[in-house]
Each structure stands twice: as C-alpha cells, then as structure tokens.
Design brief:
mainly beta; 5-stranded mixed β-sheet; 4 helices; globular
Length: about 475
Amino acid sequence: MHLSSKLLSASFAAGITVGIIGTVGAATLRGSEIFTDVPSGSYYDEAVGEMYNAGVIKGNPDGSFNPAGYVTRADVAVMLQRLRDEMTGNVESSSSSSRSSSSSSSTSSSSSSFSSSSVNPKGALRFTTGEIRVPENVSTKKVTIAVVRTGGNQGTVTVEYTTGGGNATEGTDYTKSSGALTFEGTETSKTFDVAIKDDSASEGNETLTVTLSNPGGGVSLGSPVTLTLIIVDDESSSSSSSNSTSSSSSLTGPTVGFGATQYSVDEDMGSIAVTVVRFGSSSSAATVTYGTSNGTGKSGSEYTTTTGTLSFAANESSKTFSVPVSNDTSGDGAKTFNVTLTSPSGFTLATGFSTATVTINDDETVEFGSGSFKFSRSSFTAEETTGKATITVQRTGGSTFAASVNYATTSLTASSGNDFTHTSGTLTFAAGESAKTFVVPIIKDSVGDGGETFSVDLTNPTGNVPLLSPYSATVTID
C-alpha cells in the first residue's frame, strides 16, 4: 500500500473511532467555552469540546486551539495514544468497571469512562517552579513570579498570594507583597512582583516563602503552591557558586561543540546550516575539523558529503557550515545523516556535543512548519555518582524558524539544595535545530536515599510554537 493510502486509512479509522465516542458521550463544554479562537456554533465547536474533556486533545498554553493549524504525524500519534488509553481505561479518570472483550462492551465502558471524567473545566492554579534564585543586587530591584492555570480555563477565577516565612528580613531584604490575581475566562497566566533590597551585610543567602491560597470561582490549586525565593548575597564569596546552571555551565572551558544535538531540514530547502559554538574561555584562536557520515540517508542521494576546518579568531564564539541536501519526488520518509567534530586545536571537545544528527524531512509525505516543544521522554534517571542529570528537549514536527522555551526544576521527594541544584533557563532553537539539552547538577551525599524524584517543566514557548506532551517530566535520582 502506498504511504499516502496508509495515512488516509489511519485517519479514516481514527475518525470512525472518534465518531463512536462522540455519539455515546455527552460533552460538558463546547470548544468555544474553552479556547479563545474556536468560534461559537462552528461545525467543530462541539467536537473540540468533547475531545478536550475526553483528554484526547489539548490546546496551546495561551488558551488558543489554532483550529486551522496543520496536524503533524507526531500530533496524530499523541491523539491516537490518548484515544486508546481512554477507550481501554489506561487513564486515571477511567471507569473501574470491568470491560468485556466484545466491541459493544468496550464502547460502553469507554463512554462511561468519558462521561465520568474528573477534569475540572475551571482548571488548577500553581507556580511554574518551586524555587527561584535572585541576586540581592538584581538590576530590576525585583523578581517577577508567574502563576499558571492548567487543565481548564472556563470562567473567571481568583487566587491570593502572600510572602512570609524563611530567614529573610522584611523591610531589610525584601518588601512584603500580597494580593489577589484574577484570571478572566481563557486566561492562563498571571505574574506579580516581589521587591528585593540590596544591603551591605555579608550574611549569606537568605530565603523567603511565597504561597498561593484561597482559590475562588471553582478553580483548584495545583502543585507547587509554595515557592522558595532564595536571595543570593552578593557580599558572600559563596554566591557565585550557588547560582542556577544552564545547559552550558557544566562545560568547563575552553571547549567546543555543536549548538544542538539534533537538527532537521525540509528536503526542498537546499541546505542545512549547522552551528558550532565555543564554551568557556574564547580569548585565543582555535580550530576544529568537521565532517559528515551516513545514517539512513546516503551521501549523493539525500545529502552531499561535506568536510572542512573552522577557524575561530580570539573572542569569536560561534561558526557555521552548510551541508547541501537533495530534493527528490519519492515519498520515502525522513532520512538522517551525522555531523562530527574532530581534531580540536586550542580547546577540547565538549562532552556530549561533538556529534549531532540531521534529519531530512520528506516533503512528499508530511507538512512541516513551526513544530512543537516536548521532552524526549516523560521520565529520566540520574546516577548520584555522576553528579548530573542531562535532560533533552525536542522540537518535533518542524523547525523552519527560531524559537525558544523556558525550563525549570521543581522539588518532589528530592530536595533542592540537598539532592540536586535548582536549575532554570531558556533554550533557544535556531532554524533547523530540533533537540537541545540542559544539565541539572546532582548532589552526592552519604545517605542511602535512592529513588528520590524532582520534576522538570517547559513553559513560555515563543515563536507560536506550542508545547506537546510530555512538557513535564520526572527525574529519579538513583
């Protein structure tokens, strides 16, 4: 069967299954009551509402649905997975009733599961992270704290916030802040500021607790609702070592590596630009050799073999080289090739960044555009002895222009400062870059407390690039 026929058959089968659930289940909301850009009374208004309540589809973090946007194969896979889980009961909200092996019993059970879904259409309010570090001499004289509304956005809801607790002194280290945030219908994020004061005392880092309470309008409280604000003392010699780390801070220099661990390019683009960056010191001249090798794509058919040497002048931090890609008329799917750095002079190769994979997207089978941000997996494991957890963020379904996404850690059973170092930052993807990593430092101790966990979350994507599940992942420290 031709690929397009397979895709058509899969779409047709999915449509039939969705139709069955939509017939037997009763939607509690229409799409126009959930998303800002779904017109009331449109032909898909009811269907969007039903599938949202069933957990099959989700909207964008800004409360929109983008009904005219392209659906990627990644999107289809996620939707079919959610649909399968809903029908088989492999979700928390599924019915506990037994399921017969007959199709009629399966349909009945799935409709029961659907109609009894415990999703709160008002949503839940929480902080985006459980810990924020801010220098006491921060130039803005304040720290901005975000509260997000997830899982639903129907109607107007409120929540109160207040500062207090910790060993920071009100009036000396910070100005007390309290108030209420109001989320109008479809609003999904709000911020408030806490003023930070700079003193001349060498008193070490101090902490302040910020708390959410008293949700109103039917909204729930999510997790975390308590945030620890660490005010980093600029008079203390330890302040520089306690700052959050980013994806490159653990790369002691001078080192060199690729700007991303994966790249992607549409085959009709003609070439892919690959960026090589210097980490750490760049005060002297240096060189590094690059080259390509086959993956599933073959040189001469899908791309052109490319080799060369990049010469960095003193204080020059990045270089690019291009690899030509070939456009054919066959629908043979995506192909890959590898790029590798070797023979560095004046610096060493950065661990984990000396090789990268380039995916050539087949324009005969898939529509590509802005893509979506997601973690490469929903759970990661970190060995305490290695001292770090390496987390990969992917941009799937397209990467035709630059975009960025924020990341941050949150304590679960593992404690920030004792088991790991809180880490937050921004990953910026250039056009064609499809995977990046950041490192969370793991703290080695003498206590046999393996199996503790913390979470990492993606927030605030730019460039109209939505988040795709999993945009929250769990890290287990062994």
